[in-house]
Amino acid sequence: MGPTQKPNVCRQLSRRALGFFSRDAGVVQRTNLGILRALVCQESTKFKNVWTTHSKSPIAYERGRIYFDNYRCCVSSVASEPRKLYEMPKCSKSEKIEDALLWECPVGEILPNPSDYKSSLIALTAHNWLFRISAATGKVLEKIYLASYCKFRYLSWDTPQEVIAVKSAQNKCSALARQAGIQQPVLLYLAVFHVLPFSLIGILEINKKIFGNVTDATLSHGILIVMYSSGLVRLYSFQAIIEQFMQQKLDLGCACRWGGTAGTVGEAPFGIPCNIKITDSPPLLFEVSSLENAFQIGGHPWHYIITPNKKKQKGVFHICALKDNSLAKNGIQEMECCSLESDWIYFHPDASGRIIHVGPNQVKVLKLNEVEDNSAQYQISEDFVILANREKNKNENLFTVTASGRVVKKNFNLLDDDPEQETFKIVDYEDELDLLSVVAVTQIDAEGKAHLDFHCNEYGTLLKSIPLVESWDVTYSHEVYFDRDLVLHIEQTPSRVFSCYVYQMVCDPGEEETTNRSCE
């Protein structure tokens, strides 16, 4: 248990007004967020459901903006009541936005246009166009035509806010083609761009001849990650691949001749040729086998988490050093639980190097430490544990009486994720307020009830609990976002009906009235 002393909001506001932090903008921002955190967590603060809506198309949330109808309509959730920011013109199914990323101006870079300093939505359409759209107005600021030789479908950050990767749908060989002995040479494509201003790095093909039967591939922090159905995961340097296998440097908007065809790079119908074709096995950086390709890298120093590649090992996690593959001391983490849904583990997004391990009835925050007598080895230890609020001795004996009057005792055990017991469903981190948010659900009578708890990220102390007014069906898909003074819950039914519930921070009106009367 850590210190319980609360910051004095009035004192912080007074110090800010007197200019105590004026020489350091970062200190001012941290002070402001500290004040907001104190207001969010104080007992009198409530979160009120201010808006609810339903949709037949997916609903997405990004940094205070709610997107409907495949990103065509944008609603701001920052105001006291959500209001529409813009609605783009209706388009055909072939022109709809399939995926999008929010780009925000990086600090310390000089950009060519004043509009570039404002947030933009990087959007991928169904007909292979890449748009940069103003996040405030919906106006298309830039557009790039990708290609006609494949179907691009997914957007992801290679380097957050700097480099994006656009991945194609995987080319799968049909049954007739397999019977005829026809092999599909190219499995998928990755188009890689610097953003703001847009500049092409290249389009890479993942082919079967070099990589074999790949099930998926992606880019992350300059590393090409290739996955196989066997559970094998291989890592390659993307920069090394560019230097060795790029056929020709291409620039957006410039004339180009490729394969007997001439056109402008990034404009229809020419698009962007595939200019990175691997003809030989690139240098392998790392290789590991893991169940369902589950593989994560993080920690200080670098460690990775895998599950041994056997079905009976599901729910067992090995934490190993990246430099020599050695297992950390206490590096086998297994949560002793009996549940329908398996537990999950990941590196803490706060860059502390810690690890979060979530089960149905507990959240463990683990840390990496040097072994006392061996500085070359690291060990895993518990930082703190968050436990579900459950009745003790729920797994008990059941007594029945037979027709002859004999009492029979039957032993029975409840599942750890039994719906009548409080069960953890979602764990997230609010980086600006430095709070862990935990969604816990309990089945009450015929419906589930959920509450969102805020825990101190440093000590795990429970600071605030917010009940969600809507029922929680465990058979639906759910997403919950906690963003400063906003809580947003998006659910999807099996019949693909989407609902969005918006909560905003308000002061308890009952307490306000009491205060006003006492002042009078």
TrEMBL record:
Recorded superkingdom: Eukaryota
An example Gene Ontology biological process: protein ubiquitination
GO cellular component: Cul4-RING E3 ubiquitin ligase complex
Signal sequence range: none
Name used for this protein in its record: DCA17 factor
Source species of the chain: Crocuta crocuta (Spotted hyena)
High-level lineage: Eukaryota, Metazoa, Chordata, Craniata, Vertebrata
Gene that specifies this protein: Dcaf17_0
